[in-house]
C-alpha cells in the first residue's frame, strides 16, 4: 500500500521504462494532474495515452520525456498533441523533447506511444508489468491516475501495485484496473501490474512451459496480509499515540515547573540575604572570573583589557603612561594572572614591560596571529578553571542523563508515527524529543553562590546609574576601580557613561586591547 512506508523510504526496483516529466528550460512548474491509460492489444502490444496538465510560472519552451524500453520491448510512434493540434517532437536517443513555448500558462499535453511486446504472455496469464515513474524522477505529480484496459471486457483479472502504487487499486470493472495514486512526490518508485487470461492475447508470443498464476496469487495474498497488518498497527498507534505523547508532555511540564520553582527558591534566598548588603558586591572571585561568568562564559577583548587593569588595581603592574605598563614586585594570586603576566610582559612585551603599541605590532605580524589566539584561549581556560572551582552551577548529571534518555526513547515512536502516516503525532513526539534533549544539554541550575554573584552584579549594573556623587565619594579608590573595571569587562555602556560624570579619586582609563576573533 502507498501508506506502508514513509516518503523517505525508496523501494529498490529495477526499472526499464522511465516516464519522468521535467521541463526543458529551468522554470517553475507543477504537474497538476496526470492520467495514463494503457490499452492492451491482442498481439501483446500496448497502446499508451497520457494526459499531463502543467502549470508554468514564467517562460517555458516545452517539456521532456525519457522513455527507456524494457528488454525485448521497444517504444514506437511517439506523438504529442494539444487540443488536437500536433506538437513538434524531437528524439535524442531515449529522450523526447516536446516543444510548446509560452509564459505563465496552464497547458494540457496528450502524449501517445506504443510499447511493442509490452504484455508478457505465459501459458495461463498475460501480464502488463510496468513502472511509469521511479526514484530518478525529479518532478512531483500532484494527482496521478493509471488505468489498464484489457483487449476485451472480462471479469477475471489479477492486479497489484508496488511502492507508491501499492494499495491504490480503487475499482476493477469489466477488467479495467484503476490505480488512483494521488500525490506522488519526486524520487519515489511505483510499478503497476495487471494480469489477464492468456486467451485474451491469441496472436501474442507465448513463454512456453511457464505459468505465473499461482505465484501472482500468492503475492497478492501476501501484500493484502501486509496491508491488513499495516492498518492494524496504524489503528493501534493512533489509539496509543495521544497517551504516549501526553505522558511525555506531562513529564516535561513537571520538569520545567520543578526547575522553575527551584530557581525561584534560590533567587528568593539570595534576594533575602542581599537586602542589607552594600551596592558593590563582595569579591568572591577574581574580577576576570566574575566578568566571564556574567558574560555567559563568552570571552572578548574587553575581558583582556579588564584583566590588565585589574593587575594595575592590585598593584601587580604599574602604569607608566596611557598605554605603557611595567611589572611590579607583588606576586599574583591566581594562575591565570601569572599566565597573563608571562604572555603580555614577556612573550609579547620584553623583560616585564608591555605597551599597547607593542601589542599592535605583534598582532600585525600574521605569523603571530595564530599564537596570539592560542595563548588567549589558554588564558581563558585558566579563568574558567577558577570559575569551576567555585562550583557556581549544579551539574545534575543523573537528572540530565535521565531526561536525555527520555528524549531518545521518543525517537522510535517518532519513526513509527511517520511510517504509518500519523503525521500529527510524529510532529509532537519529535518536538518533545528535541525539547528533552535540549533540557538535558542546557540545564545547569545556579548554586546559591552562583545566583548570588549574578544577582549582586546585575543589581550593581541596574542601580549604578542612580548613584550620587556623595555615595560614590564614600567608596574607596579600590572599590571605584572594581566597579570601573567590571563595567569595561562586560562593556556596560550605561555604567561607563555614568562614570564620566562622577569625580574619580583614582584616574584610570581603559586600554584598547584588540579583540580575539
UniProtKB/TrEMBL annotation:
Chain ranges of the Predicted membrane protein YciQ-like C-terminal domain: 295-460
Record has Transmembrane as a keyword: yes
Transmembrane portions of the chain: 236-257, 397-417, 423-443
Residue ranges annotated for the DUF2207 domain, each copy included: 31-195
Coiled-coil zones: 213-240
Record's signal peptide: 1-26
Keywords of the record: Coiled coil, Membrane, Signal, Transmembrane, Transmembrane helix
InterPro entries xrefs: DUF2207 (IPR018702), YciQ-like_C (IPR048389)
Entry-linked Pfam families: DUF2207 (PF09972), DUF2207_C (PF20990)
Source species, domain of life: Bacteria
Protein name listed in UniProt: DUF2207 domain-containing protein
